[in-house]
Specification:
This protein has 375 residues and is an alpha+beta fold. The chain contains seven helices and 18 strands. The strands form four sheets. An eight-stranded mixed β-sheet has the order 1-12-18-17-16-15-14-13. The N and C termini lie far apart (51 Å).
């Protein structure tokens, strides 16, 4: 692997919605369970890591739209509807010739603006084009605008650009078989880290410390200070003793439907003469609904110091102790929600659920505003 590329990994749960029977009983969007959030089109979403965008045609499903993307010869990323308008053949299964896409079924050809330039056997100039989606590279990812193209403003991307630190970061992608609101809830309520992932990830003192809620434009934020907690396996990755006691301050921001931005700051509680290597950490989660009941999650971990273990080893820990367990948890939750027909049962929401509840209300409000604007 090229050392100049942050380490990436693709993760798949050991269980899936098909084995639990979720997919066979999905309701229509009009019957969407109250625990779920509606899809919002007027937003920027991540569709790939920067290094994944190259001179090959690749595909992804975003908000139910099949997209094809590639990097043009001048380095510019291009994103189009993945369906040839002739017979719906996927263009990701076709051919990239220079900066044109030639459909692999009947040879219809489209230039880098999406305009059809060639139709075999037709004497007439084509007057149709692919839908082109605005796309911008920002941070470690490629972002795509899914709404009205005239309303696309890169200033609305919820992440400021930054230079990726190649020595202290890694990234990857998981596909959650659930509505994206369940993923946001998982990332907002950090109490689950101790109970779901075990004490190697977070101790009881960390789980017992409540978070404070603060306002974020277009979203919600939480702040948590834990006076005495273990450095845990994350500190060990940076060369610290995992049992060393540290003071930790964390801020977690959900910005719109598509980004969760976590920043942690650490200070030593004991051993004042021994420097703490892991003094800060940033974790980004880009949330991209594939549809109402499936969610892409692009993650990026960055530490304030070079990792003392290999990216492969860090990824193995993340996969086996964090992401697989999270993926399975939200699938089981999704299954329970899909099967619940007891209208009189009310979920017991607690103080720790307040941030997610506030975010849920904001997303619902945005959906109402979007619908009203299209009338």
């Amino acid at each position: 692997m090229d050392d100049n590329i942050p380490h990436t990994v693709e993760v798949k749960a050991t269980d899936s919605s098909s084995s639990l029977g979720v997919a066979s009983r999905l309701p229509s969007p009009r019957e969407m369970p109250r625990q779920f959030a509606p899809l919002l089109r007027n937003a920027w979403y991540v569709l790939a890591t920067r290094q994944d965008v190259d001179r090959t045609l690749k595909s992804i499903l975003v908000l139910g739209d099949p997209l094809v993307y590639y990097r043009a010869e001048d380095g510019t990323p291009r994103v189009f509807d993945n369906r040839c308008p002739h017979r719906m053949f996927p263009l990701s299964k076709s051919h990239l010739i220079g900066d044109t896409i030639r459909c692999g079924y009947h040879g219809f050809t489209f230039d880098q603006a999406g305009q059809c330039t060639f139709v075999p056997g037709s004497p007439h100039k084509p007057n149709f084009a692919l839908r082109r989606y605005p796309a911008v590279e920002r941070g470690p990812w490629l972002w795509v605008w899914m709404g009205d193209e005239t309303a696309a403003d890169p200033e609305d991307i919820p992440l400021q650009d930054f230079v990726v630190d190649k020595l202290s970061s890694f990234q990857g992608h998981v596909l959650n078989e659930c509505n994206y609101m369940l993923v946001i809830e998982n990332l907002l309520d950090l109490t689950h880290i101790h109970y779901l992932h075990g004490p190697v990830a977070a101790d009881q003192a960390y789980a017992d410390e409540p978070s404070q809620v603060f306002e974020v434009e277009g979203g919600v934020g939480t702040r948590k200070i834990t006076e005495r907690t273990r450095a845990s396996n994350l500190g060990e990755w940076c060369g610290d003793d995992p049992d060393r006691l540290i003071w930790k301050e964390e801020e977690n921001r959900v910005i719109g439907p598509s980004l969760v931005d976590y920043v942690g700051t650490m200070l030593p509680v004991d051993r004042p003469d021994e420097p703490l290597r892991m003094k800060s950490m940033r974790v980004l989660h880009a949330i991209t609904p594939a549809g109402l009941y499936q969610t892409h999650q692009f993650f990026y971990f960055s530490f304030g110091t070079p990792l003392q273990i290999s990216p492969d080893e860090a990824q193995n820990i993340i996969i086996n102790q964090i992401f697989v367990q999270d993926l399975e948890a939200v699938v089981y939750q999704m299954e329970a929600i899909m099967n619940d027909r007891r209208g009189e049962i009310v979920e017991r929401r607690m103080l720790g659920d307040m941030p997610a509840m506030q975010m849920h209300r904001k997303l619902n409000r945005r959906a109402v505003e979007e619908a009203a604007a299209t009338v």
